[in-house]
Amino acid sequence: MARVVDEQYPMLSMLLTGTYGQYKALVPSVENGYFSRLLTVVIRGTNGFDKRYVKSKGGQSVIPKQVGHRLLRTYESLMNAGEREWSLTESQKDRLGEHLETEYGTLIGLLGENFHSAVIRMAVQIERIAMILTAMRLTSSVVPDGIRLECSDADYTTAEIIGNRLLLHMAAAYRLIDGDKQDVVPEIKPLDQRTILLDALPEEYESKKLYSEAQSQGVCVRTATRWNDYWQEHGLVQKIRHGFYKKVA
To answer: Where in the chain is the domain with CATH 1.10.10?
Structure first.
């Protein structure tokens, strides 16, 4: 699907679907430039019967048309809003850098240096996703002309989660291209440095132990603190008292 917004700056977006064999024909090597430039999603096939008919007026074709009309209205709203300057905040840039150094670095360590370009470009993709989320919000709010926009923390977090998931799918595709003949990622599971750090901690630990163990794994103190907050929010860790924590069974 292509649309020329300006004759000097044509823009192209494309969605491709195919089997594993077709994907390998398109991207025969992990060193191929397509591998790091494509956002890849690996979907397991199912043997169930796929109902091809939709109980709605106009049949199955009405659904993509409805979605297309909504996208067109969003696009027109953005065009009418005028140009904006957008950027991540300084703290968000630091956070993205930490991802490259820790969580993404784990994948490079597991899959090899050939995965490096995918990691670097995913950082760019996260930034683009965050920008799109900000732009979508402009369609429902009035923003003065000429204003400089910064990404909200909520939008950045959403973009980061999406990027993490996409990177795991790329890791699955990497294994496929690299010659792994086994069932290609029957279930996408995060290769998460957070889990590695948490598993290495005793059942009860204090902040000093958390930081020393994190640094031994190459994780900075600020990132370890953020992960510890994440564990508490998701019920993995319980705070006993100030500076002391306990894993939740």
So the answer is: 193-247
Task: Output the pTM of the full model.
Answer: 0.62
Residue 247 is which amino acid? Answer: K
Which parts of 74-155 are beta strand (E)? 85-87, 148-150
Candidates 10, 167, 138, 129; CA nearest to 75 is 138
Q: Is 210 left (phi over 0), alpha (psi -120 to 50) or beta?
A: alpha
**Mind listing the pLDDT tens digit for each residue in 106-157?**
777 677 777 888 888 888 899 999 998 888 776 655 555 557 788 988 899 8
- The closest of 97, 111, 125, 104 to 40, measured between CA atoms, is 125
* SS (HEC) of 183-216: CCCCCCCCCCHHHHHHHHCCCEEEHHHHHHHHHH
Contact yes or no for 53/118 (Cβ under 8 A): no
Alpha carbon distance 234, 230 (integer Å): 6
Distance CA 191, CA 106 (A): 7
The residue written with tokens 């500076």 in the block is 243
CA end-to-end distance (rounded Å), the chain: 49
Angle at 227 between CA 222 and CA 228, to 5 degrees: 95
**In terms of DSSP bridges, do strands 148-150 and 85-87 run parallel, antiparallel, or are they unpaired?**
parallel
- Measure the CA–CA gap between 149 and 133, rounded to whole angstroms: 12
Q: Which fold has domain 193-247?
A: Arc Repressor Mutant, subunit A (1.10.10)
Give 158-182 pLDDT, tens digit per residue. 998 888 888 888 888 887 787 654 4
Cα–Cα dist 104/168, whole Å: 10
Contact 240, 203 (CB under 8 A): no
Residue 159 host element (H or E): helix 153-177
